[in-house]
């Protein structure tokens, strides 16, 4: 993907250089293991109540916090987290890695054509948050778009069974 040209719109907070998000999780150990595999790095800090990941190539500071309130976690409000990868091959590779790690696959690798055409894979983390692994399409990919814009499954045998 080409970097976007600088926008003249003033930033709300000038000079920001990192995105920070904190997620409450049901099982800190399982979630820490999941995000360690996802990012390929160990947490910068690991305590009894939290794990902190600093992911420099994403300019991301992710904190996983234990759910010590006893309240049910709402994984519906946060629709999903997205992680762009270089290409379709990387989406397929992520699928096989996820299967090998026992990660729940919500939607197998497929090419979707409605809205922004993407190669995508949807996973669920141990707490239930959705994670979209996606790659933007090349001109060659776009040339293969079906006339009906039906999703194209990228791994044989992952297509939904129709009656």
From TrEMBL:
Residues 15-136 form the VOC domain. It comes from the Bacteria. Transmembrane segments: none annotated. GO terms for biological process: response to cadmium ion. SUPFAM superfamilies: Glyoxalase/Bleomycin resistance protein/Dihydroxybiphenyl dioxygenase (SSF54593). InterPro entries: Cadmium-induced_rsp (IPR052393), Glyas_Bleomycin-R_OHBP_Dase (IPR029068), Glyas_Fos-R_dOase_dom (IPR004360), VOC_core (IPR037523). This is Glyoxalase. It comes from Acidihalobacter ferrooxydans. The lineage of its organism: Bacteria, Pseudomonadati, Pseudomonadota, Gammaproteobacteria, Chromatiales.
């Amino acid at each position: 993907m080409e970097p976007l040209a600088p926008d003249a719109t003033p930033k709300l907070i000038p000079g920001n250089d990192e995105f920070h998000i904190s997620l409450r999780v049901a099982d800190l150990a399982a979630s820490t293991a999941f995000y360690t595999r996802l990012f390929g790095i160990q947490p910068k800090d690991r305590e009894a109540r939290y794990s902190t990941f600093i992911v420099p190539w994403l300019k991301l500071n992710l904190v996983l916090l234990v759910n010590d309130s006893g309240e049910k976690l709402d994984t519906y409000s946060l629709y999903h987290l997205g992680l762009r990868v270089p290409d379709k091959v990387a989406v397929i590779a992520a699928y096989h890695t996820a299967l090998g790690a026992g990660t729940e696959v919500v939607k197998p690798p497929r090419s979707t054509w409605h809205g922004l055409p993407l190669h995508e894979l949807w996973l669920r983390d141990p707490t239930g948050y959705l994670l979209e692994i996606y790659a933007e399409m090349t001109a060659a990919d776009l040339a293969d778009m079906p006339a009906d814009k039906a999703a194209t499954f990228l791994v044989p045998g992952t297509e939904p069974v129709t009656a």
